[in-house]
Amino acid sequence: MNQTPIYNKEAFLQIVQDRRAIRTYDENVKISQEEMSEILTAATKAPSSVNLQPWRFVVIESPEAKAKLAPLAKFNQQQVKTSSAVIAVFADMNNLDYLEEIYGKAVEHGLMPQEVKDQQVPSIRNLLSSITEQANRETILIDSGLVSMQLMLTAKAYGYDTCPIGGYEKDKIAEAFDLDKDRYVPVMLLSIGKAVDTGYKSYRMPVEQITEWK
């Protein structure tokens, strides 16, 4: 049975189709911390494995912070210089530390019955305590990739443009911004601001070529 979507499908598809990687931004446009917080809050509605939300953000917006980032992103100077901010996305290897807090708050806010929490928390802790460091890393990188994509789409809905950046000194970025490099795994940088050009459209392989129906 067909159901009417509860959202504006056309508007959402337009956001998806209009999103492009932008490398030059209007340097006069600044995003307030209040608005940036709204964007990040919406982005963090992304799903994550057992809802542990391993993503962490560093919003690099001040001239001093951008100057610190610039030599670590040598091939992306334009984005760093002209964007309103560059958001460094990290994945927290210690995400299990927040299990009790997250599930406790779910109960407190009426989102989960106490008995469900009491059942799930020990099971999740036992399961995740036994996985390898590599398995944990792979999981939190996937989760942080999901929040990064949602962040880009949310930014577009707010009227801003973004560019995901993978070319930077990943082995130095955490320590440069006072994070424990063994705990916080770099995922990507996301420049954000108002585009001064339209960017380039890019070719996408047709669904028929990349999909199998069984």
UniProtKB/TrEMBL annotation:
Residues 17-194 form the Nitroreductase domain. Keywords: Oxidoreductase. Belongs to the nitroreductase family. This is Nitroreductase family protein. It comes from Metabacillus halosaccharovorans. Pfam families: Nitroreductase. The keyword Oxidoreductase applies.
